[in-house]
Design brief:
Elements lengths: L2 H25 L5 H13 L1 H14 L11 H7 L6 H18 L2 H5 L3 E2 L6 E4 L5 E4 L4 E7 L2 E8 L1 E5 L8 E5 L2 E5 L3 E5 L8 E6 L1 E6 L3 E5 L2 E5 L5 E5 L2 H4 L6 E8 H9 L5 E4 L8 E7 L3 H11 L2 E7 L2 E6 L1
Parallel strand pairs: 5-7, 16-19
Antiparallel strand pairs: 1-4, 2-3, 3-6, 4-5, 6-9, 7-8, 8-11, 9-10, 10-13, 11-12, 13-14, 15-17, 18-19
């Protein structure tokens, strides 16, 4: 056997694993714009990269903004099996690893309280502070005589803090912390392209990141940008945190942001097949308990259609 014949299977296996990792990464709801840019750079280096990735894209749908052939939806509806066992094995390994993280098992293992997808719960802590924990979220409580610390491991939570000046209450997210003495405020972790943020309904909250430090007052929200700076703006906190009452309220929000929010309350993915429809503006009030009804309502208001490729995969595309 020639050296070329010996190395080709290894090269193909390596390429398949790389393509599988990209498919798994872009499938994750935590995939960032930087991930997508790095993927495009990898894809454009060699035509073989795009060909290998397309085998996964044809099964899993539009995972990374890759332009798909015109018969894409028909192929997804019909369903396909992978042609090579090696690719299947690589994909399963990568998807299991990312799936454990994406589905929250890692964070739940380390949490004192957590919620599953579509579940919202209310917690009262030992000091009387109250927490509303949003869908697919997890927190760890670290109380001591001189402080009250909460680690937001995943998702979003809203805090009604019992006043105690001698025991400051601080919520820690990966890249920021929000400290209060007695107030009502929410904190969410970064999710996909959506940044970590803090929203203050009542009182004053001290927000700190690696590069910035700000004091927020009632009606203000701060988003953490890529440089670690806090961008502050006035917002309707009641609308932004309406999930506490089982509702989602949007006022002239881009469709991509609306779908990202709805996706948090259902198992599976909602994929935008056409990038430009993601900029369509939408206002409305939707019931968290029935996201399918929300999608039907959106389809009636906007020039789009939702196709259920599988029970876990919904494709949004132009009518």
């Amino acid at each position: 056997m020639s050296i070329q014949a010996q190395t080709m299977p290894r090269d193909h296996d390596k390429l398949s694993k790389e393509a599988a990792r990209w498919a798994a990464r872009l499938q994750s709801s935590d995939a960032t714009a930087a991930d997508k840019a790095a993927f495009r750079e990898w894809r454009d280096k060699n035509p073989a990269h795009e060909a290998a990735y397309n085998e996964f894209a044809s099964l899993w749908g539009d995972l990374g903004g890759v332009r798909l052939p015109e018969n894409r939806l028909q192929q997804i509806r019909r369903g396909r099996t992978l042609k090579r066992a090696g690719i299947c094995g690589s994909l399963l390994v990568c998807l299991v690893a990312f799936g454990l993280y994406q589905n929250g098992y890692y964070d739940r293992y380390h949490a004192d309280y957590y919620t599953k997808t579509g579940e919202i719960t209310h917690i009262t802590l030992s000091d009387g502070s109250k927490i509303a924990l949003n869908s697919d979220s997890a927190i760890r409580v670290r109380y001591a005589p001189d402080h009250r610390d909460i680690d937001l491991l995943r998702g979003e939570a809203f805090f009604t803090v019992a006043h105690n000046a001698d025991r400051p209450f601080t919520v820690h997210e990966n890249n920021l912390s929000a400290r209060a003495v007695g107030t009502r405020y929410g904190v969410s972790t970064a999710h996909g392209d959506l940044p970590a943020d803090v929203q203050v309904e009542e009182g004053i909250v001290e927000v700190t990141s690696a590069s910035d430090h700000q004091l927020l007052t009632a009606g203000q929200a701060a988003e953490l940008d890529r440089d670690g700076m806090l961008n502050i703006e006035k917002t309707d906190i009641g609308n932004e945190t309406a999930w506490r009452d089982g509702k989602l309220v949007f006022s002239q929000k881009p469709l991509r942001d609306v779908l990202a929010s709805l996706e948090q309350y259902r198992t599976g993915r909602i994929i935008l097949l056409d990038d430009d429809i993601g900029n369509l503006q939408l206002s409305g009030i939707f019931d968290i308990a029935d996201t399918d009804q929300a999608l039907r309502s959106i389809a009636q208001r906007l020039p789009i259609t939702f196709s259920y490729a599988t029970p876990l995969l919904v494709i949004a595309h132009k009518k």
